[in-house]
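Next up, sample data.

:::
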Amino acid sequence: MKFRSIASFMLLISLVATNLAPVLAQSQNSLPAGVKKITTVEGITEYRLDNGLKVLLMPDQTKQNITVNIVYNVGSRHEGYGETGMAHLLEHLVFKGTPKHPNIPKELTERGTSPNGTTWYDRTNYFETFAATGDNLEWALGLEADRMINSFIAKKDLDSEFSVVRNEFESGENSPVRVLLQKVMAVAYDWHNYGKSTIGSRSDIENVKIENLQAFYRRYYQPDNATLVVAGKIDEARTIRLINEKFGTIPRPDRKLYPTWTVEPTQDGERKVYVRRVGETQYVMAGYHGPPTAHPDYAAWSIMNRILTDTPSGRLYKALVETKKATSVLGTAFATREPSYALFGAEVPKNGDLNDVEKTLVETVENFSAETPSKDDVNRFVQNELKNLELTLNDPNTTAIRLTESIAAGDWRLIFLIRDRMKKVAPEDVQRVAKKYLLPSSRTVGKFIPTENPVRAEVPTVSDEEIEKMMAEVKTGGAVSEGETFEVTPSNIESRTQRGQIGTVRTAFLNKRNRGETVALRMNIRFGNAKDLMGKGTIGGIVGQMLTRGTAKRTRQEIRDEFDRLKSQVVVSGGATGAFVNITSTRENLAETVKLVSEVLKEASFPEAEFDQLKRERLTALEDGRSDPQAIAVRALQQSFNRYPKGDVRYAGSLDEDIEELKAITIADVRKFHKDFYGTTNADLAIVGDFDVASISDLIGREFGSWASPKKFERIPGDFFDIAPMNLTFETPDKQNALFLARLNIAMRDDDPDFAAFTLGNFILGGGFLNSRLATRIRQNEGLSYGVGSNFNASSLDRSGAFIANAIYAPVNVDKLEAAFRDEIMKAVTTGFTQQEVDAAKAGWLLGRQRARGTDAALAGTLENYLFLGRTFAWDEAIEKKVQSLTVEQVNAAMKKHLIPEKISTFKAGDFAKHRNK
């Protein structure tokens, strides 16, 4: 796994991240008995039930989905000695059911939800996003109320699930960054639980007592320790009544919750830790103690972290990456309830000088306060943070999840308080917090060094009472804007869509009023043909990655700064056969954003320094794959199922071939590819949301309507290959997690008579949320894998489909896992599925599609793809009707006909020899 940015690094360390619609006015007298209205901030209203439950409602009639998110103020910080990982293990067991809901994964799948649960230092949360139809809201509230106090937390479930969690633990052990992170945190903290990984220690996971887990559950899973968030297309008055009906009957517990007593003493000297394991890439990290999220210093502290770690403008990037000492940098400032931590790191090639990188990294970080950051640097990252938050707040379903971290940090309104503090951050504030916290005595990378006059960073705390006083700074109310109610049925989508052609660009416009006047644009530019692209596959990928790294008018940083100024999230990428544009913006900024995207596509300058850096990054990533089970197994599958000649853009090469090809590419190759192939002679563009159709149409015509591609475009087909079955095993020493892959090619297109039946059959076999045949057997019952499932893909143009299954697991379980997988495949094609399974799968699959259409970005992507295929949403209506009418006999017949067990190939990578030699 690679980490190229702060955002990607945050995904690793978490186990687990607009204008707002008006809140319906309610007087206290109109509320149900036992419910009090507390406050309203920018469209979010807090209520309190007599039993202590906090409720946050965020209605938005423009959305067609609802998110229910319940946050418990309990995480790994609250665990006792010998109980590490208990909060996370409990998160797993709460999905195991209650007397009223004995099969929660099944219900979540049948309702077409997008659910999950996550655990972090200060909290655990459970959420589900679902279509705002029928009784889904009442069901979701009933589910969360029931599993708050009635979850089984049974010994039999613990016996199967602890090995699943252990497997999740082992998957992290394969990542050098995650392993190093855990060691640094453990050394940085003497006593506080922030020094312990949320997933826990292996021994605690394996030996936890069910009685301890049940007591932990009864203590913390109570209404007075929880906050319920409901956002999306809801009627506020009805929703608060439902919440009171479901949760209000739960009594306030008699027990008293005490704060966690441990206060980490001020660190009094540098510390260092080494990790020695198999791998291909070196890493170095340095960490420093810092303020809690609610502290006034936190806003400047987080901006300081961005100035140091950003790519490409950050000080560490310039000191380490631009000087070619390292291939990338990473970093984060944790957001926590109690005093937090900041990490800075770098990725170094195997032949790099790790000691020199460590020295440069530490000097760059600790010399930060010697120079006041420029106002432009501070404003750049403040604007970026504010943009991201504003876009989040435009989407109630995203906001419902984002509020989890503010709740955990002390109060949900911190999301607004920190935003307002961020606006006031000045260069002097950033320099002050750097001088206050980035001290040698607070560093974890070092040895003990006697110092005559030690200087120590005194880290502040914030009490609950202080946070409550701070909330006076948060302004109540706030102006909000409304959109329209938009039904996401295929027929309504089709009736509102305008298709046409502007010059050479095919277009699809779906204009609708959105909250925050948001709009999503998707464009696909197709170019080239098999003959002209011969030998240019890797070059095309490099060109796509270089597009936003500089134009004739702007540098890489200036491009990103301008997108931030325009409050637009933009991804411009490309490959051997095309380029792709994804934009999320607003009505006000869409036109300027499109102009900048046009500049990026047409005037890319391909700076040589950026080209050299990108090559180093990709070479490092490839070398990293030599010992990684996932990279090895995936590459083996790709090569085994590929029958194209070397040089063909569809060819799958060996690791050494890919490295050799990458090394041979020159900047002249890259610039020539762009000159020869780029143009909108064959392009499709779709826009969904709030925009002016006439003015945007004129703009598209000016920017893209006549931009011709020099080379002829001919679609390159994906051929069907009948591959003889194989069973390949790859040894990856010292890797505690293994990967299992299985594949079967199927000659099928998505208009095949059996497509609907086989799709639904695969949904039962390996889809859904922990409720498929494979997940129930391998994860739920036998506890062999944390992640297991299957998918089926069939082309819309070529008869080339594929069934692919995957699982992660402990290498010691290699035989058990494969046996269970093959047994479930045999059962699917011999005894087949039941009527009950088929009926439940239909409901879940159809609701899942409805939920997907509720996102503008996904809808724009579908419209763009349909322009190329010549389809309308009548196809969706037809396929959904076909699925709805399927019989159990049709599903079983399709599985028996196409899923041939003896033709399935398997690929396994892991440290199997170590376990077999024991």
